[in-house]
Write a structure and sequence with these properties.
Blueprint: H1 3-22, H2 27-34, H3 38-46, H4 53-62, H5 79-123
Helix pairs in contact: 1-3, 2-3
């Protein structure tokens, strides 16, 4: 697990412990309200990553913060996907610029060929210099 993730879990656990203490709840009472054992609550408050997401979600619910769970992995905040989307959009834009340039070149060469064909038809296929 990345060190920054471990640190974030430890901070979250410590914050949950502070929330419990500010509410003057004992370990036993808080554990009962969450539906876990006291040792599991201690592991949660220590930020151990093996504590289940359901336990964490219930602890957040107890302090009125469970609504943040719905936004943790929202696609609009997914930097990696957003960066990929930007790169794909840029590549698509470049491909469209190339396609437009190619289409213009093709159109110009067709126009030129038609004009040359008309010129040849007017001169009977003979060069005007002759």
């Amino acid at each position: 697990m990345p060190p920054s993730t471990v640190a974030a879990l430890e901070q979250l656990g410590a914050d949950l412990a502070v929330a419990r203490l500010r509410r003057r709840e004992s370990l036993k009472t808080w554990a009962t309200r969450i539906g876990i054992s006291v040792p599991t609550l201690l592991r949660l408050e220590a930020g151990e990553p093996s504590v289940s997401l359901g336990v964490l979600a219930t602890a957040l619910w107890l302090i009125g913060r469970d609504q943040v769970l719905a936004t943790l992995a929202t696609p609009k905040e997914d930097r990696g996907a957003l960066e990929l989307g930007v790169r794909q959009a840029e590549a698509l834009g470049q491909a469209r610029v190339r396609a437009t340039a190619q289409a213009k070149m093709k159109k110009a060469s067709i126009r030129q060929a038609r004009q040359e064909g008309l010129t040849d038809a007017h001169t009977g296929g003979k060069s005007q210099e002759a």
